[in-house]
Every structure is written in C-alpha cells, then in structure tokens.
Specification:
74% of the residues lie in helices and 3% in strands. The chain has nine helices and two strands, in the order αααββαααααα. It has one domain.
Length: 257
Amino acid sequence: MNFELAQLQTLIAALLWPLARVSGLMLTAPVLGARSIPVRVRVGLALLLALVLMPLAPLPGKVDPLSIAALVTVMQQLVVGAAIGFALKLAFEALAFGGELVAGAMGLGFAEVMDPQQGHSAPALGQFYLLLATLIFLAMDGHLQLIALLATGMRHASWQAAMPGGNALWSLLAFASHLFAGAVLVALPALAALLVVNLGFGAISRAAPSMNLFSIGFPISICLGFVAVWLGLRALPGAFDALQNAAFQLIRAISGI
C-alpha cells in the first residue's frame, strides 16, 4: 500500500490537532496526567486518545504540517487542552485545600507528606482528601465523562478553531474562586466543631487559670478533629460532585460546545 506525499501530510495534519489538545490536557489534568504515572505511559495514553479522537476531528484539507498556520493551530490546541485540564484540577485542589484548613485547625498542620502531583511536601490530611477525590472521580466515571467532552469538542469545532474567547477565559479565572468556596464547603463541618471545642477551652481557661490546657487541649482537639472529619465524609461526595459538574460546564464553554 503506497502513500503519496500529499496523503501523508494530510494524515499527519489530521493527527496533530487532537494530539495537541490531548497533550495539553495531560500537562495539567489530574489523574490522567499525574506525575506518579510514568512518562512513557502518559505519552502512550495521549497518542492512543488522539488516534481514537482523530476520526471525530474535522478534516484539515490541504494543510502543510510544517507551515506557520499549522504551528499556530497546534499551539492554540495546546492552550485549549491545558485550560480544560486546569479547570478540572481546580475541583481537586479545592478538596485538598479544605483538608489543609482542617489540619491547621486541629493542630495537624505539621504532619506533612510528599505530594507526588506538585513535587513538594503538603499536609497529610489534604493528601487524604485529594486521594478520596481521585477515588470518587474514578467511581463516578469522571474520566469517561472527560473523554466524552473531548470527543464532543472535536466534533463541534473546526480546524481553524481559535483559542477560547475572552468570556471563556474570564470564566476560567472566575472559577478559580470555587477553590476557596469549595474548600470552605468541605472543611466547614469540622471547622465549626473545632471552633466550639476551642470556645470551650477558652471558657475553662477563664474558670481555672492554673490548668495546663496546652497538654490537655492539644490531644483532645486532634481526637475530636478526627471524629468531625469522619462525620463530615458523608457530605464529601456531594460536594465534589457539585465542583465536578461546575468544572465540566466550564469545559463545555472552553471547548465551544
């Protein structure tokens, strides 16, 4: 089977756009683009997704893969894919930030572990919430929904599709505020319980100034903090589902769906 040069250029050009968008997604998206996954596995997964999505992408026509127009289009799709992954990453970071708030309130801010996503140490309770978010994301088929949104975006876009408009980019920046709102939503039950405990310690210190509350209050705060975290885990899937749906809605706006 012989390929002419024009056919080979068209085939390469048809693969470049989905590969660029998927590669941008792998740079910032959680789970699929995690640093704990070997680079070869991530590259193979990006190429596999690009090959699957290639039939859904519009035909580029007579486009030279080495031309300036093709290079600009590839860079645009890299930015679009990175924006899609960043929108989803904010939903995960909201839960991790909520765990950090709870850890600081209960006195476990010094307990840190290595974060494989960021490459630096982070509070252990925040990593626990991040691990729960990953399990919930996979259990709710979030990765399949993300691939479905990629496929829909490929089908409705054009080869000359530009970068997201100003409204979509502004929506992405505004969605960053959900990081703090989602963190407060996740951490609010435990923070409220620990606030009541600290108010009780304050009343005891006024009634009995000679009592050493530091040696007594520290272990009590940790124990009651764990109880509050355990009781608050029931609301965690609902809170993450709301953040995930908001992220998917933003991804639709970025993809032009």
